[in-house]
Write a structure and sequence with these properties.
This protein is mostly beta strands. It is built from no helices and 12 strands. It has one domain: Sandwich (Immunoglobulin-like). This is DOMON-like domain-containing protein.
Length: 184
């Protein structure tokens, strides 16, 4: 399997003094599966990580440390958003266009989110299986956005993405969906 590796950049408006880097890896696991790994280079003890460790669908994960994947439609302005928390909670949404028409995206199989950490690294892995999912976006040739909100216990947050096309962090804009899905 081919992996694509990406270094995410922190938005200039919200730098972090404790997070050294955020990396993401994409891997095509099959015709309808995507694996994504986020590695946050920071002491997990300083990060705001939710206590509720249950692998369930949950809204507002971005209010604490959360990694995100955006999957853009090939034939229109629509896109899907997937959120993965170090609590192993997850979320999946469908948008008709830029921040418009948001609704839950039904998935036939819940994402599998696993977390590993040591004194310098927080690693979040997610396996998305789209078999049976109501997925309007095509996987072949799709462009993706890879992002992370890294919240710290002192109340500060940094915003990481492949690119930041605007003066304020905005992960939803199509100009940020520049990753390519590896072929299977």
């Amino acid at each position: 399997m081919i992996k694509h590796e990406y270094n995410l950049a922190s938005h200039d408006s919200a730098p972090s003094s404790t997070v050294c880097a955020v990396k993401a890896e994409l891997e095509r696991k099959g015709a309808r599966q995507i694996g994504v790994r986020y590695t946050i280079d920071a002491d997990p003890a300083v990060l705001d990580i939710p206590d509720d460790v249950k692998a369930v669908r949950k809204d507002y994960l971005w209010k604490t440390t959360c990694c995100e994947l955006f999957l853009r439609d090939l034939d229109g302005p629509g896109y899907c958003e997937f959120n993965f928390s170090p609590s192993t909670c997850w979320a999946a949404y469908r948008f008709d266009s830029f921040r418009s028409g948001m609704r839950d995206l039904p998935l036939g199989i819940s994402p599998i989110v696993t977390v590993q950490e040591d004194s310098r690294i927080l690693q979040i892995d997610a396996l998305l299986d789209f078999a049976g999912a109501e997925l309007p976006a095509q996987l072949d040739g799709a462009s993706l956005g890879l992002t992370a909100v890294v919240a710290e216990r002192d109340g500060t947050s940094s915003y990481w993405a492949l690119t930041h096309p605007f003066p304020k962090p905005d992960f939803h804009h199509a100009d940020g969906f520049i990753a390519e899905l590896p072929e299977e």
